[in-house]
UniProtKB/TrEMBL annotation:
PANTHER family: HEMIN IMPORT ATP-BINDING PROTEIN HMUV (PTHR42794). The keyword Repeat does not apply. GO terms for molecular function: ATP binding; hydrolase activity. Its EC number is 3.6.3.33. This is Vitamin B12 import ATP-binding protein BtuD. Keywords: ATP-binding, Hydrolase, Nucleotide-binding, Translocase, Transport. The keyword Nucleotide-binding applies.
Length: 116
């Protein structure tokens, strides 16, 4: 319910002067259908010429949904740019101290951890 209230405050038809939406882990408590609905709303919001800045730890969701990424480590900017340039296994491995690899499934890429 709080997320709906936030969206209403910045939605273009309600507030034509809004330009930026800030969200911190907005999908954490959402089920799959709600997550997809939020993704659609965020896409529509951004396509209207506005920006959404979303803090998230779900690497695959970020890879699939974000247009640009700021990658932070201990509060410091490590990399920023196009999603597919920043969300690379080598860089992510350095930041998270975990070995990653990319797995292609059809047209989509997925970030996977390497297991022993």
């Amino acid at each position: 319910m709080r997320l709906a209230a936030v969206l209403l405050q910045v939605w273009p038809t309600v507030n034509p002067l809004s330009q930026l939406l800030l969200l911190d882990e907005p999908t954490n408590s959402l089920d799959v259908a709600q997550k997809v609905a939020l993704d659609r709303l965020l896409r529509e919001f951004c396509q209207s010429g506005r920006s959404a800045l979303v803090c998230a730890h779900d690497l695959n969701h970020t890879l699939q949904q974000a247009g640009r990424v700021w990658l932070l480590q201990a509060g410091r900017l490590v990399a920023e740019g196009d999603t597919h340039e920043v969300m690379e296994p080598g860089l992510l491995s350095k930041v998270y101290d975990v070995d990653f690899h990319l797995q292609a499934v059809g047209e989509q890429r997925w970030i996977m951890t390497k297991t022993a």
